[in-house]
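Lab notebook, bench 4. Continuing the backlog of folding jobs that were queued last week. Each job is logged with the same field layout so the records can be merged later without manual cleanup. Today's entry covers phosphoenolpyruvate--protein phosphotransferase, a 315-residue chain. Filled in by technician R.K.

JOB TYPE: sequence-to-structure
TARGET: phosphoenolpyruvate--protein phosphotransferase
LENGTH: 315
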Amino acid sequence: RRERAHTERLLPAVTRDGHAVEVAANIGASAESAEAVELGAEGVGLLRTELVFMDHAQAPDRAVQEAEYRRVLDGLGGRPLVVRTLDVGGDKPLPYWPMPAEENPFLGVRGIRLSLQRPDILETQLRALLASADGRPLRIMFPMVGGVEEWRIARDLTLSLREELPVADLQLGIMVEVPSAALLAPVLAREVDFFSIGTNDLTQYTMAIDRGHPTLSAQADGLHPSVLRLIGMTVEAAHAEGKWVGVCGELASDMLAVPLLVGLGVDELSVSARSIALVKARVRELDFAHSRALAQRALALESAGAVRDLVGETH
Ligand code: PEP
Ligand code: MG
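JOB STATUS: finished
OUTPUT FIELD FOLLOWS
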């Protein structure tokens, strides 16, 4: 099975009844993009830019970042790149960026909240990204957005920089990983070009369980019906506005979750490069009409265990 998946890794992922799902790669460094394509990626669905910043003794300047982002795009040969702006803060500090100690770093100044406190750093990153595009498809998204205000500030800043650094094929979106953003998806969907659901944080914040908790983290299952409902609402809201939705959290490479995500209408699954062939193979086994019905049944269940039993039976 694995061998067949590998042989077919470069083919698109289309269900038996003809519904296509894009399968892209999550990467953390520029060297990985060409390798991801070789492993079947149809693009990069999440470039985590934290490494670019952690590798240096001070914030990398525009030239250093631009070279890095260019390398990622070069490796993609015209396939789309979804980049997430710097997502540090809270538990992920940067040595050259003093942050006040917080009692609850996961509920503190992290992601877009931190970027908006240091717009100079965000601006440099956005300039580097816009300059690197060179006619290639670039999608920029902001992490940990909880509502319209943060999104609008980040969008307006990007659009103003774009006047000096034009990019023909640019989309702007947000990570949906804070429950308030999922609940407000109908409003946000009018303004964004796309959503990418970060199920790692979305599950953590929905269930109020630290994703790295030594004893509780197993209970923070992305297949909990509460999380599935938020995913379903997000997709419905996006599609009503003609926008697309990806999932870039770990859930996208969970073989039991794939039929449900596809059935909820998720357009793109972004997973680690080594999972791409298997996720594509899983999609090809599915019937979209059946997956849709399965997802509706899952939404009505009472626990993650019940959802896993449901999908496990039909697997
Ligand atoms: C997520 O939260 O699901 C996600 C993809 O981002 P990260 O794991 O980097 O927080
Ligand atoms: Mg996250």
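OBSERVATION: The first helix runs from residue 2 to 7.
SIGNED: R.K.
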